[in-house]
Amino acid sequence: MGYIPGDIKSGSGFEGDESKGRLKKHYAFQLAHYVFILEQLGSAAPGRSAYIVDRDGRRVACPLTEPQGVRNTATWAVILQRSA
What's the pTM value of the predicted model, to 2 decimals? Predict the structure, then answer.
């Protein structure tokens, strides 16, 4: 058991076409930071889960451990670890 970070945003959670499901990079990176901080405190839920609530009130899951795309297979969690 632990915390799952979330954030409320005034825009869409996705880049361009929502059907493609590409998260906005700055949203995902911010949430990855939240997860990292919670992990350091020992308070994160397992699975590196996070979400945003978008402008329409939808809860959008941010799969931080899944590849960013077909060409870019790095996960947000890995990118955050590299920058730390």
Answer: 0.76
